[in-house]
């Protein structure tokens, strides 16, 4: 994340406290590598719309559907070639052995990546092969080790390493304490920031960040926001993330009598969620775009984020 500080007064006349006040909300987007038969014009429009917001970075997911890091890297190469956006690659343990992942990290760095989101990935039924990293914490160590070995290549700089975190708890965790212990371990191993899994209640995020701080987490926990465009979408995403959709959200969306009304209700719920967490102190928003530029633009307009002013 690149913090931007208030430029309204000369820097040397500002107190330390004033210097620390972010002038604007950090903004990042998550996109999915397009399928090989994707409509090129749609991808161009997606990237053009997202770029118009000058995001702090654009995160590209990695999944079996997109050929693991093959799809991620190809999309990042395209983003780097055709836009000015700074790409961040999702790197999941599920994508390969330690040796294979080192090869991918090198290729991603060559493609312009200076940030990685270290993830375990969604487990296949049979679990992960033994020679794959088993948890995201191993990936952080792998990245930091590679960085030390190649210090000259990075001109002694660092790769930004992000991790996932879970305001409503990770489905496999025994309890909340486990989630905080894992997050603290990741911070200790060198994670610079975390992006949250989607959540439906502002209080879940605000309570989570407060408890994390008390537990000793000092890295930013960036809220991931999913535009709630329909009940079907919300239920599907809840299912994939192991999250129950609250009755409040379900009944509001189910009460709509047309798809337009459903969209309107969902976007208003999302806007309220985003506004509440920003009012509660979140310093940035990470939008799960699902590669839809119109919904993303609509949501940001409703929240009051204007692409001309960024
Ligand atoms: P881990 O940190 O490994 O945690 C998984 C479980 O294991 C937790 O219960 C944790 O408490 C426990 N645990 C952690 N470390 C250890 C340890 N050392 N020993 C024992 N137990 C441990 N998935 C994809 O496949 N591709 C993506 O691009 C992708 N992007 C995502 C982006 C975001 C912002 C988020 C929040 C999730 C994303 N996911 C993605 C989903 C993610 O891979 C799943 O949530 C996955 O189930 C867990 O990933 P993790 O990195 O949190 O795993």
Automatic annotation (TrEMBL):
InterPro entries given in the database record: FAD-linked_oxidoreductase-like, Mehydrof_redctse-like
Gene3D superfamilies: 3.20.20.220
Keywords: FAD, Flavoprotein, Oxidoreductase
Entry cofactors: FAD
Coiled coil region boundaries: none
Reaction(s) this enzyme catalyzes, per UniProt: (6S)-5-methyl-5,6,7,8-tetrahydrofolate + NAD(+) = (6R)-5,10-methylene-5,6,7,8-tetrahydrofolate + NADH + H(+)
Pathway: One-carbon metabolism; tetrahydrofolate interconversion
One Pfam match: MTHFR
A single GO molecular function term of this UniProt record: methylenetetrahydrofolate reductase [NAD(P)H] activity
Keyword Flavoprotein: yes
Family listed: Belongs to the methylenetetrahydrofolate reductase family.
PANTHER family: METHYLENETETRAHYDROFOLATE REDUCTASE, METHYLENETETRAHYDROFOLATE REDUCTASE (NADPH)
Name by which UniProt lists this protein: Methylenetetrahydrofolate reductase
Gene: metF
């Amino acid at each position: 994340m690149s913090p931007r500080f208030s430029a309204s007064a000369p820097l040397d006349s500002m107190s330390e406290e004033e210097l620390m006040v972010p002038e604007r909300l950090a903004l990042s987007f998550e996109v999915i590598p397009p399928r090989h038969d994707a409509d090129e014009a749609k991808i161009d429009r997606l990237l053009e719309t997202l770029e118009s917001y000058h995001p702090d970075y654009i995160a590209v997911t990695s999944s079996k559907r997109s050929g693991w890091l093959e799809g991620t890297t190809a999309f990042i190469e395209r983003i780097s070639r055709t836009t000015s956006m700074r790409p961040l690659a999702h790197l999941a343990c599920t994508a390969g052995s330690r040796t294979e992942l080192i090869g991918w990290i090198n290729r991603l760095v060559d493609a312009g990546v200076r940030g990685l989101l270290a993830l375990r990935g969604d487990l296949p039924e049979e679990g992960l092969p033994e020679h794959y990293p088993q948890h995201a914490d191993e990936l952080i160590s792998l990245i930091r080790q590679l960085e030390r070995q190649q210090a000259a290549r990075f001109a002694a700089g660092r790769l930004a390493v992000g991790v996932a975190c879970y305001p409503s708890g990770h489905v496999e965790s025994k309890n909340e304490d486990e989630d905080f212990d894992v997050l603290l371990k990741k911070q200790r191993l060198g994670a610079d920031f975390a992006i949250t899994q989607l959540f439906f209640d502002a209080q879940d995020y605000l309570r989570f960040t407060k408890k994390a701080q008390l537990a000793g987490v000092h890295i930013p926990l960036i809220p991931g926001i999913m535009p709630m465009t329909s009940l079907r979408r919300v239920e599907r995403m809840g299912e994939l993330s192991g999250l129950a959709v609250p009755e409040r959200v379900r009944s509001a969306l189910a009460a709509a009598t047309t798809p337009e009304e459903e969209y309107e209700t969902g976007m208003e719920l999302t806007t309220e969620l985003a506004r509440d967490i920003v009012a509660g102190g979140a310093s940035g928003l990470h939008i799960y775009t699902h590669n839809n530029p119109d919904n993303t633009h609509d949501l940001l307009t409703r929240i009051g984020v204007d692409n001309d002013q960024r």
